[in-house]
Structures are given as structure tokens and as C-alpha cells.
Amino acid sequence: MKGPFGRLFRDGEMLAGAAILAGLVLAAAFGPLLWRIDPLDVDVLASLSPPTLDHPMGTDDVGRDVLARFIGGARVSLTVSFVVTLIGTAIGGALGLVAGFSGGWLDLLLSRVMDAILAFPPLILAMAVAIGLGPGVSSAVIGIVLAAIPWYYRLLRGEVMRIRGLAFIDAARVLGVSRPRIILRHVLPQTVSTLLIQASSVFSFSILTLAALGFVGLGIQPPLPEWGTMITEGLAYALTGQWWLGLFPGLGIFLLAAAANLLADRLRDAQDPKSAKGAP
């Protein structure tokens, strides 16, 4: 593959990030088929067992298999992050496209609304939504999406404002091409790489925010497995030697977020090689 994105397939960091992400996706997708233990099965007699061949990641305080719960937590984190990224890209990208191309009062109104949302720290905003709607999957998704939409909006709005002043857009207007057709056929394709980069960053943000909501009890509720909740449960035993309860879900969060951030950085460098070289 030629062009700046073709270099990604020969980039060691990109391949490492993609390999980590692919490994976790495969574990989440096919893990339950290979490790046939229900993450909700309780075995009090086997509670707080250290990692063994029967339980490679040990068991928790009520005897549930940590590996099964780790796989379940991966499925939850990946699903929620994908949904948040998809919805945020669709809504934030569409608003940014319309506002950036149209300008005028619509641009002013949407920009003020986005500025008001950005006035709140993203995690605090997601927590406030979760508190208002009640803990759970739906409230977590809504809160994280609401925090992510302004990022898409501001980025796409600026990019579209740059593109709409180019010569080929003026030529399309002179030829009588309608505004919706100009946006869909000429402007949107020019913003795809920018959307991909932002989506990678939002995916990482979603992973960390979902874990943070679970950690404080506002995300996925027990007994469903979720990495942030698993870390919270493991804290009660952190000082008594049961290190595996919090280590493995914490490692999963770290690897998944690091892989997504690495992909976002390499995509950004591919789009703008000057940034990778530190050029002004």
C-alpha cells in the first residue's frame, strides 16, 4: 500500500498496538468457547484461591473464576467502547460537518452548546449523567457519548471550515451542485482520516472512563463482570496478599488503553509526518 497510511503496515509500534488489540478482541470473542466456566458461578469452598492450572488467574472472594470474569470484562469494555465510538462519531461528526460548512447562526448555536459541555471535565460529566440516570450500562454509554461528542464537533468543524475554502469546493458551487451533495461527495471523504484518528482516541477514553465509573460504583453493576468493578472488589484484599484480584483486570485496562492510544498516535503521525519528526 502506497501513501502515508501504507507506512503503518511496516511500523513496529503500529503492529504492536494492533497485535495487542487483536489479541484482546479474540479473547473476548472466543474466550468463552475455550474457557467454559460461567463468570457468575459461585464456589465458596474455592474462594480466594491463588492462580493454579484449574484457575490460571485465581478466584475471587466468593469462588468465581477470575479468568472467566476477565474475559467477560473484556467483552463489556470492548462492546461499550465500540458503541460509544460509533455513536460519538456519527453525532459529533455530523454536527461538525453541518456547522463547519453552513456557518452563521447554526454554527454559533452549536458551538455555544459544545462549549458549555466542554466546561465540565469529561469524567465528572459522565459521572453526573450516571448519577442522574442511575448506574448501569445505558447511563454509562450516554454519559461517555455526551462527553465525547464535543471533541468530534470541534475537530470536524475546524477541518470542514478549512476544506470549504478550497478551489474544488468553489468549483462545485459554480457548477450548481447542491449543498448536501457537496458535503457528502466532496467534504466528507476529506475528513475520513481525521475521524479515524479521533475515533481511536475516543475508544481509549471510553475504556478508561468505563473502568473509572465501575471503580466508583456508577458503571456496570455486580455480579456482571467489569474490569473497574473487579479492581474495586480486589482492593479489599490488596493488603492481605490476594494480589491477583486487582492485578489482572488492571493489566487488561492498561493493555487495551495503551494499544488504542498507540494506534491513534501512529495514525496521527501518518496523516501529518511533520508531527512525527517534531517539525514546527
Describe the structure.
The protein is mostly helical. The radius of gyration is 22 Å and the shape is elongated. The protein contains 11 helices and no strands. The protein has helices spanning 12-34, 66-102, 104-118, 122-133, 137-163, 167-174, 179-187, 192-215, 227-235, 244-271, 273-277. The longest helix has 37 residues, at 66-102. It has one domain (4-277): MetI-like fold.
The tally of helices reads 11
Helix content: over 70%
Distance between the termini: 28 Å
Strand elements, count: 0
Oligomeric grouping of the chains: single chain
* Average pLDDT figure: 85
Low-confidence parts, pLDDT < 50 over ≥5 residues?
A: 275-280
Q: At the third CATH level, what is the topology name? A: MetI-like fold
Task: Report the radius of gyration as a whole number of Å.
Answer: 22 Å
List the secondary-structure elements in sequence, H or E: HHHHHHHHHHH
Number of domains: 1
Second-tier CATH architecture:
Orthogonal Bundle
CATH superfamily: MetI-like
Highlighted features:
280 residues; mainly alpha; 11 helices; 0% strand
Q: TL;DR of this structure?
A:
By secondary structure, the chain is an all-alpha fold. It has helices at residues 12-34, 66-102, 104-118, 122-133, 137-163, 167-174, 179-187, 192-215, 227-235, 244-271, 273-277.
Please describe the topology of this protein.
Elements: H1 12-34, H2 66-102, H3 104-118, H4 122-133, H5 137-163, H6 167-174, H7 179-187, H8 192-215, H9 227-235, H10 244-271, H11 273-277
Helix pairs in contact: 1-2, 1-10, 2-3, 2-5, 2-8, 2-10, 3-5, 4-5, 5-8, 6-7, 8-9, 8-10, 9-10
